[in-house]
Amino acid sequence: MASLERGDQLSRKNIEISVRENHFVPIEQHQDPKGEDFNYAKRGQWLRAAILGANDGLVSVASLMMGVGAVKRDVMAMILAGFAGLVAGACSMAIGEFVSVYTQLDIEVAQMKREKGTNSAGNEEKPEDEQLPNPFQAAIASALAFAVGAVVPLLAAAFIKEHKVRLGVVIAVSSLALLVFGGVGAALGRTPMARSCARVLVGGWMAMGITFGLTKLIGSTGL
């Protein structure tokens, strides 16, 4: 009998120890040693719009200026082409973002109305109103981001008269700006820096090279 009681006591202690260990281990696994609990995916929407707008403005205007520079040596022709690209691109980005975000707004409002019709607690919908997307804000932000990127090659070529030097400066300044945009996006989103910068830089080089080469080819054939 004494051996049975001791066996029962030992088994109870083992059960208590295992329960305590199983109780505390999950808590330790969910703890963040660095104290970083911020969800960087929340930055994805506005970060994508800002980086896309600035990168699009830079690559579009720089490629347009390189294309004009392939057949025209006049600095004013490159500047006018770049300025026209800046205005047209900013307007296009603003309108496109406005239509896209307004469509998203309509979908979310319709979904909220359906949920409100099936849910008797109507007060729970008020906090969601403040989180709805703003089409006007998105349009202005996209246009400004595009203009910021587009003004870089314009300023680089504005004060250089020598044709070949001007083309080289546009490529160099645009490449540096692309590296900066890629680095900023990687830093804010906590993604690999080298991969992000290389992806943005190679894409910009391809766009400028293809535009320059095709325009040069068409200009040389006299079409």
From TrEMBL:
Catalytic activity from the UniProt record: Fe(2+)(in) = Fe(2+)(out)
Write down the membrane topology.
Answer: Multi-pass membrane protein
Q: Which Pfam families match?
A: VIT1
| GO molecular function, a single term | iron ion sequestering activity
Q: Where are the transmembrane segments?
A: 46-68, 75-95, 136-160, 167-188, 200-219
The alphabetized UniProt keywords are:
Ion transport, Iron, Iron transport, Membrane, Transmembrane, Transmembrane helix, Transport, Vacuole
Q: Which family does it belong to?
A: Belongs to the CCC1 family.
Query: Its function?
Result: Vacuolar Fe(2+) uptake transporter.
Name it: Vacuolar iron transporter
Organism, as annotated: Vitis vinifera
